[in-house]
Design goal:
There is one protein chain. The protein is built from 15 helices and 13 strands. Strand 6 (133-136), helix 6 and strand 7 (156-158) form a beta-alpha-beta unit. It has helices at residues 14-28, 42-49, 65-78, 91-100, 122-129, 139-148, 176-181, 203-216, 233-245, 260-266, 281-288, 301-304, 319-331, 333-350, 353-367, and strands at residues 2-6, 32-38, 53-57, 82-85, 107-111, 133-136, 156-158, 189-194, 220-225, 251-255, 269-272, 293-296, 311-314. It is of the alpha/beta class. A seven-stranded parallel β-sheet has the order 3-2-1-4-5-6-7, sandwiched between helices. A six-stranded parallel β-sheet has the order 10-9-8-11-12-13, sandwiched between helices. Helix 8 crosses helix 13. The model has no long low-confidence stretch (mean pLDDT 94).
Length: 372
């Protein structure tokens, strides 16, 4: 199949990273994939480095007539079998281009982020009615699509994001590599989170919990992995200052790391304190690495973690409850090991990238009447 993937985003987070991961998987299955992206964006740079062919544009705003025409000409020339976008904003470019050039190419849309805006006016209805199938990455996102758009339930498919569980395999990763690099001793317990610096990711609660845990425990080390996304440098600076204000000296801010399996291997407990997450790919990665986790009891997390089995869920935005649940794991090391085993099993059985890719290709072929 010849597929156009689309992600017109300047940011660099879970959606953008997963877009490249999914595109690579399709290419490995002998599909021809090209990526529509914003010129010089991080995803453009990363896609080019990975050898993925791109159509890079200067798309601005929701309605850009000149780019719509250029896009339509490209779509007509390339004759893609289907189009799959990972961002709802892209529909405002793709749907008009398909309409103007009268192209009947199947259009798939993955809803990665929830919306608080009702999109049932005339123009939005025209946009969403052109979508052949919409993939919702969690139950909360499926509910959001039904509530905010004209999409009917028969067009919406629950399809979780996935990860490469062979890459994220604790048996294949050296736990000591990152610990040695960061000068973390063998007897220190590492409690970490992995998220871009963005409001709502729960950095404040993580730091507040860290302060409480330091009052009760020795030999802890806290790890915050991630970088500021587009336009969020001030927030990152605030979080680093907050750690200093709370006198948390046993903390490391690593910045962005591409060696995620090795970073997770260095941790003993993974924390996912996001206030509102559509899914939570970092949580799945940690589970695949057999890490016990403490997660907020909200939104997409509920599709992933099982309270008391793979993880402990804490009350969303409640730093005291977060600290209490982490302390429980610190007090019962055997419980953490058991949870890690169950977490790995769940990640492999439910969120493996091969399972996801098989399902996606099956839906593609059904729409193209190529059922095997």
């Amino acid at each position: 199949m010849k597929i156009l993937y689309s992600c017109l985003s300047k940011s660099w987070g879970g959606m953008e990273m997963f877009t490249l991961t999914a595109a690579k998987q399709l290419i490995r299955r002998n599909n021809e994939v090209k990526l529509l992206c914003i010129r010089d964006s991080r995803i453009h740079v990363e896609a080019s480095a990975a050898g993925i062919l791109t159509h890079a544009i200067k798309f601005r705003g929701y309605f850009n007539p000149s780019e719509i025409i250029k896009c339509g000409l490209t779509l007509r020339k390339e004759a893609f079998d289907l189009i799959h976008t990972q961002a709802s904003k892209d529909l405002w470019l793709l749907v008009p281009a398909l309409k103007i050039f009268q192209l009947q190419v199947p259009l798939f849309f993955t809803k990665q982020v929830g919306s608080f805006i009702e999109k049932k006016d005339f123009l939005h209805n025209k946009i969403y009615n052109r979508v052949n199938k919409a993939f919702a990455i969690s139950n909360v996102i499926k509910k959001n699509l039904l509530e905010t758009t004209a999409l009917t339930e028969d067009k919406i498919i629950l399809l979780h994001n996935g990860i490469d569980t062979e890459r994220f395999d604790p048996e294949k990763v050296d736990r000591k590599k990152v610990r040695t690099e960061l000068k973390i001793s063998n007897n220190e317990i590492v409690i970490g989170m992995l998220a871009r610096f963005s409001p709502g990711k729960g950095h404040e609660e993580f730091l507040a919990a860290a302060k409480q845990l330091n009052e009760k425990n020795d030999k802890l080390r806290f790890l915050i992995v991630g970088e500021a996304s587009h336009g969020e440098d001030d927030y990152a600076t605030q979080i680093i200052k907050l750690a200093s204000q709370l006198s948390i000296e046993n903390i490391l801010f690593t910045g962005f790391r591409s060696d995620t399996p090795e970073v997770l291997a260095a941790m003993d407990i993974f924390v996912f304190p996001s206030h509102s997450e559509a899914f939570g790919i970092a949580l799945v990665e940690a589970m695949a690495m057999a890490k016990p986790s403490v997660c907020s009891n909200s939104d997409g997390v509920l599709d992933i973690a099982i309270d008391g089995e793979t993880s402990f869920l804490f009350e969303n935005k409640n730093a005291n409850d977060l600290a209490e649940k982490i302390q429980k794991l610190l007090s019962e090391p055997g419980l953490g090991l058991h949870m890690g085993v169950k977490a790995r099993e769940r990640a492999v059985n439910k969120f493996d990238l091969n399972i996801l890719t098989d399902r996606v290709i099956r839906f593609y072929k059904q729409e193209l009447n190529q059922d095997e």
